[in-house]
Specification:
8 helices; flat
Length: 160
């Protein structure tokens, strides 16, 4: 291996797109912890990559939603749990880097809500509403909070 080959090989290793692709691949194969580590490296090197990472969480959530619907599940998922947990881990990572992004907190609230994590969902929805008090994200977060509290008060199964 010549000098230029070594140079380009090293450059490829510190490429955020490389970390992104490897992290995405690991997550989709079920290795969540290692995948998240690589996605974090990608964000540190290139913060704008968060949009691509958000799309992974969105696709995982859509897959979980589809599997849950196929077994007759409701808002509190009984199927697609592994994908849902992966989407939560990705959104938690994004919330570290985009702590003032109402959309990230709203999506995280929905994911926690679907996973029956009442307290975490409330915190995420409240954060989204505070970040976007007069916008559509804030309105949706407040609406979701109302439904969450209604469901808890009604004794709907699954809420922790």
């Amino acid at each position: 291996m010549g000098f230029l080959d070594k140079f380009f090989d090293l450059k490829k290793k510190d490429d955020p797109e490389n970390y992104f692709e490897q992290g995405k691949s690991l997550i989709l194969k079920g290795d969540l912890d290692e995948g998240i580590k690589l996605l974090k490296k990608a964000i540190v090197l290139y913060p704008h990559i968060t949009n691509q990472i958000y799309r992974i969480a969105y696709k995982l959530h859509a897959g979980a939603k589809s599997r849950n619907k196929a077994v007759g599940g409701n808002i509190y998922y009984s199927s697609g749990i592994e994908e849902l947990e992966s989407a939560i881990a990705i959104m938690e990572l994004l919330s570290e880097f985009e702590s003032n992004n109402a959309e990230v907190w709203l999506k995280l609230g929905v994911l926690y809500d679907n996973h029956c994590c009442f307290d975490n969902a409330v915190k995420a929805y409240e954060r989204a509403a505070n970040l976007d008090p007069k916008g559509p994200g804030g309105a949706e977060a407040l609406h979701n909070l109302e439904i969450l509290y209604f469901n808890k008060g009604s004794g709907i199964l699954g809420i922790k």
